[in-house]
Amino acid sequence: MSWFNRTDKGILTPTESKREVPDGLWFKSPGGKIVHTRELKNNAYVVPEEDYHVRIGSEEYFEILFDNNEFTELDPNMESADPLKFKDTKPYPKRIKETQAKVGLKDAVRTAHGKMNGLDIVIACMDFSFIGGSMGSVVGEKIARAMDYSLKHKIPCLMISRSGGARMMEAGLSLMQMAKTSARIAQLDQAKIPYISLLTDPTTGGVTASYAMLGDFNIAEPGALIGFAGPRVIRETIGKDLPKGFQSAEFVLEHGFLDFIVDRRNLKNRLSSLLKMLQ
Q: What is the model's pTM?
């Protein structure tokens, strides 16, 4: 049974000298495409050939959109309290602290102002990694203050949404953020200051029912899930199968709820061209 024995020694690497590939060095897309994370970053976190848009957060969007990644963050230290004394298996304040330590964020949105292709802009970007991008009091307040900054300095506001909806631990206080942010958007409209809403994957619940769908221009990334309730809930409620591609950005565009879909690699230039046209 000589085929069980190695006859040529070749160049062998001792087990103790072998190294594991570092975590995060490679990314595998849902379609099975393997891409180096450096190449992915240089491609605006879009998988080449497949055009699959990887979920990213405020850090990456700010890097993509702000010139030279230079910006001034607004209200960076604001964090949630527990006014309702929410009862659960884990106290709400403890969950907040654990999430902050894990993801390095204070809450589910960051706001900042800076230059985008030389144009002044305010950007509010949600982070899904923080409790599912849920909308709590801090999220609503930070977005409202970002819009106040736009109003005061008369510069456009861009909202980048990615959320599972309202934050249940804040109940009615969370829902109040829908009215607060919507009122600020009305003030931007009265002042003729552009407000652009970018919907990314996923944008659902109370966020979709408020500031995400109230832009002067509502745009989305390819393939983003956009809706109020989830497809399963809707299917069980109406008792019927849903159309193919239901709640995808392409489906929503076809039914008139979006102005256009934009590839993330072209996002900065498309937004700049749009704002120049509005000026």
A: 0.88
